């Protein structure tokens, strides 16, 4: 290679932290070195940088199509919710009151010390909440829109920012402000609402598996983990590489509680006034944290091709001499050729990275960002009709250069769609195998569970237990026992095997299976 | 037609207000009857309904592609801006301080009266502003990202909600919360920054003309109308059908003021520390208000095909009898056939409206929403291979039914792409002719201007004046004189003819031409 030599110490090639040494520090480094996001200087809020936001745009595009396909209409509802709206549903407000950003003034004035302060004359009569979720304000709209059974089901969705004042934040996983979609639907009866709740859950499951290449368990959350005000909450749960669970999407059957609070009533075919049954369901930028912790390796992120903003990076090995023109022309030809192809059901996305800079530095930047295929092309390649391709999911860490496979341009182009599809499938397979290998079954007592999680394994994974599904105080006791072990109940898989034996918590006959794990 | 007859009085077919009788009331009715948006119950905030939001999604899609094409990267920055960030640029904070939503608390507690209140224990040390615009928080990020001349230009954009606490609000035109995109760029010098400012302006001009079919004047705003903190502000100005001007997009050259406040400095090629020159530019949901007031007629909205969520509505005349099945099959065939076609450079968007309901009611709903083509198909049409097509932009108001053109299905399909393109072009032509006919030139004294706008014409349109471009106090005097006539200076067109004669305000030699108008 002919670019100016540079002292290795000046280039930060790889990550400095390995997953097995400090998973949390590794995560932070991937987010930072992969140029996904950074601290904004505003408490708990992050700046999502182009590569991270590009992944979110891909998620939005594919999820939005699935939402529309289901007959749900996109709308937009206010950022602010009057306190009185929020207070109508008791469980709901109790669940969120501790973490809400409250707007109290609508003007600033000079504070007499050269600075500014909220103008006491411009205090709002009723404080406004920055939406942590929109059931209440959307419920108010639904109450206006629904009159007759003919208006049902009413199905809307919005892509929006929401705010929950989290005390301990972590980029993508838990931030004070985050981006999400929230679907809200109203139905004539429980059956129809439950059908929609499960449809949304299945949409999320399928999206996680097929688009994010992230295996998940779709199931019902226990009573204590329900959304505030919900009758039933379902989730998709993914296992991160440290064995912890990540709740990556939720779908709620809300019964008639929110309809009653907002007044969503309809005249039935028989002429009676009935309360609607509502649902809500959402996924957020948190999914990106899940992708990082599912697919990242010790070189950085590995982005599944379906959500990679660019699937193929063409890196010309520029020499800043006369040869560059021919090299760039050759790269541009390949780019145009690739743009005509499709993979995973969409046109291939290619970037020709012509920016100035050292080739090794640029290569490592794309490795850390996790672009699925990196195509390095030097002057000799251009002259001989060749390319060197790196498959990011199978990098051999010690010397990335030796991972590049030299091949003819024709050969590469002919195989690239299959290659992208294979990368997508391989990432899913690898993650599924890892997940399945870290689910432990057959523990039958709480002592066994305690012993299992007390072992000197940093990443014990999940345990599947049979239980009797206690409620109320009995459930509270179970939750406390698990909390002492830093464990939580994740969910009961929809496709779980029948329960067996006795409940380790109550000693009663088990009625279903649950996953128990440490969690984000 | 065979649908059940219904007493006309029971159906609210058309609008009840005409443009010439009460333009403001007409606007409100189009927004409401066209199911574009509605009041949310939250002060100054609207709910954008599916048809209105669908238009916004079309605007986003096309504008986003143009922004990306220019090499600008999408990111996401925090909703909240610490007061101290905002206060760094004096003009900027002064311009916005009077209309900012201020977050002061992060938790609610019981108020002892059965309600909730902000928890005095959870008062923020530093109040947070809900962003009215993001120069300051993006400037802080740019200061981190820019070190060397190699990092410039730095060009980012975000699609976001912003809040300006407006006292008098009107849907889409002026709401407390609105949706927009804001581009922010940093450059090495004035020339490069000014080039970008004008590139963004031209992008907006071209978008307004070619996509919204809305003729605009692209030009520079006078000093008194600059964005708070800007060195130069450019706008696109459109003429509404009441003759008023609507500022539909702005692009600002910010000089080095924001760079200095945020510390955006770079090392030049020569090794010196220099301040970057920044720009910002944005368009918002206000554009939708412009589309309504440019293209709406006394039957409701007319949506240009380029931004219509559905360009063709297929309306089967269902009879709720055995014939419906064959009719629906025929409609479905046509839908599939149309989906294979493209118009205006994109696949055609078709909706088969199978919902129950009276055919006339459904027809009028789509007329009011302004779908470009409505295709009514009855059982006899289906049997004979025919369709009846309504071209929304040329409706003859008294009896919409007679506007439908019966033709063979083949004939319609063969001509539909050209038809959509002709509708797009016709709307643009019609609006341009109307605009041009309402610009008055040749007034040379302030008395003439006063007389012109005092005449008993409700919609006098715009006046083009030659002026001497006064600044400071002299400009203030002009602004006051115009204000007394309820007039404002809109902008100086980039392609304006050379100035002529004397300035009607100062008596000095004119140096440029300005548009003077009433405005939204």
UniProtKB/TrEMBL annotation, chains A, B:
GO cellular component, one term: aminoacyl-tRNA synthetase multienzyme complex
Highest taxon of the lineage: Bacteria
Localization terms from the record: Cytoplasm
Gene3D superfamilies found in the cross-reference section: Anticodon-binding domain, Bira Bifunctional Protein, Domain 2, C-terminal domain of ProRS
Keyword Cytoplasm: yes
Swiss-Prot/TrEMBL domain comment: Consists of three domains: the N-terminal catalytic domain, the anticodon-binding domain and the C-terminal extension.
Name of this chain's protein: Proline--tRNA ligase
